[in-house]
Write a structure and sequence with these properties.
alpha+beta; Pnp Oxidase, Chain A; six-stranded antiparallel β-barrel
């Protein structure tokens, strides 16, 4: 899908909010072995300038990442949009979706930075499952934790470019957007329908 200016978020902090809320990314890089992709949980810094993640040592991408340009893609809900949902004629099928691209060079983290990343990652997600007592690494045998962290490598990507696409029928009139949202609700895509109602607007394509 073409990332039209009509589908760029109005709010400057929306892309960062989505990255934090979704918390999982596809990480792409070109390597001597060809293009590679890995999938990993991510931690965005408070000032949204860096993105941290970790991969298994055996991952095909791991050995090439230090100093390499990386493209990270965080994807939100997506769904097919039927032209039959519009009142207006001469419509075509399309797709509504959320995708946030971030680009930057990666550097390998040292052991202390990796542990700090794991602590931050678990704390962020454990906070979402309250009132259960949050899990922390203090519950683990330190030797076992050390062996497990030895099997992964942490990285930090300094973000030099953001390319968010929030395609929620913003190029359609309000009544048509609501018809699409109702269609999405009826086909089991309630999360995307809710985002359309909360984030959609009356902007036209530039």
């Amino acid at each position: 899908m073409h990332p039209s200016p009509a589908f760029r978020p109005k709010e400057d902090d929306l892309a960062a909010l989505l990255v934090r809320e979704i918390g999982f990314a596809a990480l792409f890089a070109t390597t001597p072995d060809g293009p590679r992709v890995a999938h990993a949980p991510v931690v965005l810094s408070n000032d949204a300038t860096t993105l941290q993640f970790h991969l298994a040592r055996g991952n095909a991408l791991t050995k090439h990442l230090d100093g390499t340009l990386v493209l990270a893609v965080v994807q939100g809900p997506d769904a097919y949009v039927s032209p039959g949902w519009y009142a207006a004629a001469d419509q075509v099928p399309t797709w509504n979706y959320i995708a946030v691209e971030m680009e930057g060079a990666a550097r390998r983290l040292d052991d202390a930075e990796l542990v700090a990343q794991l602590d931050t990652l678990s704390a962020q997600h454990e906070a979402r499952i309250a009132p259960a007592a949050p899990w922390t690494r203090d519950k683990m045998d330190p030797a076992i934790f050390g062996r497990m962290t030895g099997a992964i490598i942490g990285f930090e990507m300094r973000i030099v470019a953001w390319r968010p696409t929030i395609k929620l029928s913003q190029n359609k009139p309000a009544e048509e957007r609501e018809r699409v949202a109702a269609g999405l609700d009826a086909t089991g895509h309630g999360a995307l329908a809710q985002l359309m109602r909360h984030l959609g607007g009356d902007r036209k394509p530039a």
